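Z., the sequence and structure:
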Amino acid sequence: MSSQSESAPEAALAAWFDRFNEVDWSEHEAGELPSLLAAITSDEEAQREKGREQLYELLLQEEAVSAATPLIVPHLIELLGVSGVLDRAHLLVLLGDLGDLPKELVQTTEFDEGEPWIVRLRQAHQNVVEGVDAYLALLEDKDEDVRTVVPYALAVAWQRADDISGILRQRLDAEPLDRARASILLCLGLLNPKGDVPLFETHLDKAQPAIVRLAASMALLKAVGRFAPVEVLELLLDLIKNPEMVRDDYIQLPWADADVLGDVSLLLASLREGEQNLSLPPLLATLDEVEGDKALNVVEAALHVAFGFAEDHEHHAHAPDEEPLERALSGDQRQVIRALAECHEPWQQQVAMRELLDAFDLPMEREDLRDLAEAQH
């Protein structure tokens, strides 16, 4: 009996592979698929990780999407239910990515001519949506990672937003895992942002875990933008100074685009009224209220908000005594440069401060920062 029980998962996986191999994948530009699927279902973690990377490259090359991409989706959905399959959370993330297509490309064929990759991704999206019931069944799975990423796969199924949202609201109350609750809120923020504003506001309460409050804030910003409650800005400013409040949970969310500091900076950058960023005055006011790394976090966030991300800038390494680069500054950028020139605490870590400024192609000396700001006034 024990032997039969132990072999059952292997038998189920073998049966799945029999069905999978009924397709001649070489006819669909993907003859390597069977070996990649064998890799991602391996018992060896390193082999699974390598297989996932290669599978992504095959299925989701930009503007070179494989003909196999839409065809494999039903097989991946079925694989989620095969007993003993490891890393089902990664399968759900892959399905979410395969289904993530702008709504306008799903609803129109206007752009299809000469662009087979659009047709294939539309078919993949439609096939991912077909798996909604399979994803919903995993909301109460024993695997915490699975429960955390299920909403990521559900979020692409906007065609079924009403019934998905209703089920997620019910699950939100029962879910004991903070990061899974955060993921549910982020999904609701995409599927039904304006309809769930009261729910999001409820989860801003300071009695809620920080990761849940962050997710509620993100959903509110999606729904109402700069009209979000003041608690949203207060939380984001706290997280700039103390990203460790959520870092361990945040990095496990499939929604995370960068580290928490970078993503929170993007949220602050979205708080605009006309040409003015509403988050900069309170953010810059904290420059001398915090010390050490926290002060540098504020500097980095302010630079992100005003100048974008450092990698977006054509970099010119320059010496401390070099003349500042001539550039047209916006009001927000001038405001940040002046504040950085006049603050005290971040300059206590002079090497790190200069490295930050240099990454954004800005002068590395305070006097040069003042000159740059005044020259544009």
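Strands lie at 272-273, 276-277. The chain has a mean pLDDT of 90.

Let me know what you think.
H.
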